[in-house]
């Protein structure tokens, strides 16, 4: 539902915006990529492709069901009306940025590497089996030579990924898991080649290649999982304008991309559009939805002379404004700068795997060296000493350790993905498992940023029906709520309804004038008599109040349950908001949050989080607004709802697509379970080493033993990771909305 | 021993064929929409094939 909320608030993208987001394919052919989250079956493919192909100038439309995208190729200057067509069919579509659409190079490299390594590992293993089962003399040499040849492309292609990563780590004076892998694999290959040339008995080609194969599978799965999450997040609607219509001095209008907007330009902002840059209003009256910018839940009335911030949504009337800052100096860019400055805990965080390998690699390499020295002293045979030392390196090559962490994180990410929580990267899971306090934003996070009528029971249904009828003509949030409450049929029919931006709606029915809006404007008789000067929304008949409406911000589904759950999980919860103290207190009381701070500026939120961090707390930030973005960056780990602004979604480590706030506690639960499994897996890997290393040091390891030991430990680790599925199986029933909302969670079905 | 002289090349050739087939399929975009491909088989495309 949160998705729909975000969508409903914005109008269809203008023709200019579509053009800006299209790619020219040569000639006058353009390609536009749309994200259509609701696509979910073969029927959708057919409906969409057939409908779009029928449009004039559309050359081709193709749906990608996996990524929920539609690419449309069209020709000519006129943009075909595909947004209107799609929404007529019942599909919400968002424009997709061409730059994000670039093909995923890393993924195809990884898949190719897996294919090559798999081919090599399979064939070498076949030859090795013949050697183990007794091939001798010339036959064995032949098999070794063929194995050596097959291993070359595998090492070059698949091993290259590890060699580059290891070299990169060493160059920066760091240590990662790829260093011992690269050293082990290349030494094993070199020694086996030497053995082969000298008609030796033991060659480890199978060990080095199958090691690469196993590790690459883990790495590829990890990448696929992250990419799926990222694709889903990128497919959400944009909340920032791509450009704006500029009114030139000679009266011409031109659509200009945001980056080219200059201070002093006059911009036309239609109702339903976002303000692209900071500026002052020159003419027009309207209401602005500032919730995503400042966290204020109530819309703000603006008129000529008011200063407006980039990112706010123009609700009711057209505005002409003068830009006072370029996009790079606007509020939005300021937030990005604050975020980069605040980037604290997460850039300093070192992943578990890296911390282990910093200890592991030196220990292993020293052990191998000590083995070499020991055998040199004991037997004086340098060939034997080197062979045994390399066998130690091969047996300790961190196959199980290299899989121990990523495989659990893949399982956890998959589990969360099914529940509609997107995990951007594995380190986020590790960081989330460590938190002890959670900080929530109010508007848009704990609440939906959507008003709810509180006093329905006190209002005459006939009056409510008239108000609903009138409200259907406006996109003001209060009106939308009222419009949804209509349904009584006996009300007089409205004639000539018109909206007065910043004031309300006026209509005539059965000879009298009805007004719905601000008390001071609608109830003009009451104003004269001096009564009712306070605010609020009222319905008046010929200037006399007949109904008044009290709104409050609707809470996000399961907000209370989620906070309770977090308390159970021993996380202390706070609320930081840019909204007024009164609005905050109300929500805090409803949700039983004891600590809250109102009226905070974006930098204030960052300061609060940094104070907590210096006190030794690991802070989770959950927020959606532009004003939360720096705080999302400053926190140890961060979660944003799908309705958040783009930069917030990009800054956050997790994005949850469904409305329920229980996603937060589920993510915490899964990440803690995953943390436990990771520790178990590491223990398994270390146990394996403590058994295998003495055997190797004593010189009893043959290629057969190495192959069995390495595969067995890897399988053990993978099997342990799979237990995560069973652990949290009971949870999804709680997170999936149980009423007819499944339509809106189309994205989550991805 | 002489059988190996042609059996091993044949085995490697067949394996290599499979590998190159996979790489070709990957390159030509057949793995880009696995879910869609599964559903498309049920769609009656009429007489105008797409792409």
Can you put this structure into words, describing what you see?
The complex is a heterodimer of chains A (750) and B (51). Among the domains of chain A are: 105-233 and 348-411, no CATH class; 417-449 and 555-670, HAD superfamily/HAD-like (Rossmann fold, 3-Layer(aba) Sandwich); 455-549, Calcium-transporting ATPase, cytoplasmic domain N, CATH 3.40.1110. Helix content of chain A is 51%, strand content 17%. Chain A is built from 28 helices and 28 strands. In chain A, strands 15-28-27-26-16-24-25 form a 7-stranded mixed beta sheet, sandwiched between helices. Chain A has a 6-stranded antiparallel beta sheet with strand order 7-6-8-14-9-12. In chain A, strands 1, 2, 3, 4 and 5 form a 5-stranded antiparallel beta sheet that branches. In chain A, helix 7 packs antiparallel against helix 8 (205-234). By secondary structure, chain B is mostly helical. The longest helix of chain B is centred in the N-terminal third of the chain and has 26 residues, at 2-27. At the A-B interface, helix 3, strand 3, helix 5 and helix 6 of A face helix 1 and helix 2 of B. Chain B: This is Cbb3-type cytochrome oxidase assembly protein CcoS. Chain B: It comes from Mesorhizobium neociceri. Chain B: The chain crosses the membrane at residues 6-26. Chain B: Keywords: Membrane, Transmembrane, Transmembrane helix.
Summarize the structure.
The complex is a heterodimer of chains A (750) and B (51). With 750 residues, chain A is an alpha+beta fold.
